[in-house]
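Hi R.,

Here's the chain you asked about this morning:
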Amino acid sequence: MPVIRSWARTDVGKKRPHNEDAYLVDEALGLYAVADGMGGHAAGEVASAAAVKSLRDALAGEKAALDAFTRTPSLEARESAAQAMERAVQRACADVYALSLGDPGKRGMGTTLVALLACGRNAVIAHVGDSRAYLFRNDRAHQLTEDHTMVQEQLKRGLITKAEVATAENRNVITRAIGIQRSVAVDTLVTDLLPGDVYVLCTDGLHGYLGEDELPALLGQEKRRLVDLLVDLALQRGGKDNVTGIALAVEAGADEESPDVEGRTEVLRRIPLFQHMTYKELLGILGIARGRQFQKGQTIIREGETGDELFVLFRGKVQVTKGEMAIASLKAGGHFGEMGLVDQAPRSATVTALEETSAVSIDRDSLLKLMRRDGRFARGRRRYAPAVRVVRLRLAACRLRLALTAPLLAFGVACSHAPAPPGPPLDPVALLQQIEKAHAEPQTLSASGKAAVDAPQNGGRYQIQILVRRPASLRIAALDPLGNPAALLVADAGRFALLDLRSNVFYRGPSTPENLSRLFPQPLRDEELVALVLGAMPPLPGARPVEAHRAGEGSVLTLESGQVRQEVSFGADLRVEHVRRARGDDPWWEVSLDDFDDASGKQMPRRLRLSAPAEKIQVDLQLKERVWGKPTLPGAFQLTPPHGVKVVEVD
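And here is the predicted structure, written out as C-alpha cells:
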C-alpha cells in the first residue's frame, strides 16, 4: 500500500483578529480536512471546528465500508465508500446547523469543507464551498474541486470573463456551505493514490493568492516545506484572510505497482465522447470503469446482440469480424462499442480476443448515474453534445461505406444502427398537425423542481423552488443570493400575485411577461413555461407554419407570428428538444430540454435550460417530481396580502 506523509499549517493572516479556519490530520483514519468558517468570531471558528470533528466521528463509524474498499476496490465498493463520505459530510452539516439553532449568537454560521480520505491505493475527496483540493502529478497541476461560488457559476455561463472575476460583484458569496441548512449538496471524487502524487487542501485565504499559471512550479517544490512556502507566499502577497493548508505526499509502499492513470486518461481523451472533458472529469470516468480480462479466443461482443458498454484496450489485441469476414484488428489504445453509450441497439460486429487482453468497460447506466450525481457532468452535457454528434456522423458514414465495399467494414466497429433515410420533403402544416396530436396529452400534471437563476440586473444568483400544474398554473418561491426568502409568486388563470419580501409590497394583476419577470426574470409566459415542462411545444398565438426540414433523425419546424419567429427542433419521436424564439433579426430567448424520462412512457424532460442573451439571463430548472391526477381547479393557488403590506395593482 502507498505511504502518505502530511504537513499542515494555519495562520490568522495580517488583517483578521481571529482565525476561523480549522484543519484535521488523522493519520490512523487516513483523513485530512480543511474548513473555513463564517459567521464572525465565536461562530465561524465554532462551525469549522465542529465540522471537522463531526466528519471524523462519522467516518469512524463507516469503518466496514471503508475497509472493504481498501481490501477490494471494486466498482461497488468504490460507490459505497463515496456514499460513506457523503453521509459523513451531511452529518457534519446537520450537526453545525443544530449548533446554530441552539445559540442565537451563532444563527447563520457555516463553513466550507474539503476533505481527503485515504483508502489503500485510492482516495475519496469531498468538498463543499470554495476551499480547494489540488493534485500535482507528473509535473502537472490539476484543480480537483470546483468552487461553489456565485462568480464561478457566472463564469461557467459566460456572464463574466476570467479577467472580470477579480472585480466581479458578490465575488465572495458562496452558493454552498456546511451548516447554513440541515443538508447540503456534496461533490465527491474517487481517485488513485500514485507514488509521487502531491495533494494540497487549502482555504481561499491561500489559493486566492496563487496564479493558475504558476501552480506547477509552486506545487513542485520540496514536499516537506511546501505548506510553509505556500502560506508564507499568501502572507507576503497580502494575507487578508486566514490562511490554511495541508500537503500530502504519496510514496510507494513495499512492492508497489502503480496503474498507468495518466496513460488511461490520455486514451480516454482520444475518444470523441470524452475529448472535451477536464482531467477531473476523466478521473470520474475512470472511477466507474470496470477492469476486464479476456482470454485468447474469448468473444467480447457479438454481432446482433444488444450492448451498452464501451471497451477501451490497455493490453493485448482483438479482432473485429462482420459475418464471416475479418475486417480489422485493434491493440492497446483502441476502443470499440462507443455507440452503446449513446443508443442501445444491436452490435454491428463481433470482437474476439486474439491474445490475453486487458481492458476496461464503461456501461451506459453507470455513466448516466455519474452525470446525474455530479453537477459538473450534468452542466457539461452541452459540451458533450458535439461529441455525440461526431459519433452519430461516424455511424451514418460507416453504414454508407458498409453498403459500398467490404474492405471498409473496419469503420463499422462502433456502429449500432443507422439513422432514418432522408425521405420526401416535409410539409410544415402536416408536421404541425402531427406535433399537436402527439402533444395533446397529458392534460393534467403536477410537477415540482428547483432552479438556479442568474440575473445580474436583479442582484445575482437566485435559488428558485417551483410547482407547476396543468392547466397553466405555477407557484414560485425564491431565495436571494444570500439564501434569504425573497419573494413568492402565484400565476393562475391569467392572473398573478407577487409578495415581494425585499420591498414589503404585494403586487397583483394579469399574468404578462413583464409582471412575471418581477420575480422570475425570464421572457416566458406562464403557459409557455408549463408547456415546456410538459415537453410540449410552447404556444405562439397567431402563428403559422412556414418551413420544415429534417435534421438528423428528427426535424425542425419554423413558425411565424408577425415579427416573432419560433424554431423548434424535435427528436425522432416528436419530443421537443430545443426552442428558439426571435423578434425580427434579434434573438429573444432559447430553451433546451434534455434528460427525458423515457421510463415514464410520457417522454417528459427533467431538465430545462433557458437563456435570454439580451438580458444576460440563464435559468437551469431541474424537475424532481411529477404527479398525474385530476385537473387543477382555477384558483387552486391562493396568495393573499399579509396584514400591513402595501398592495399595488398593476396592468
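One quick note: The longest helix spans residues 75-102.

Cheers,
M.
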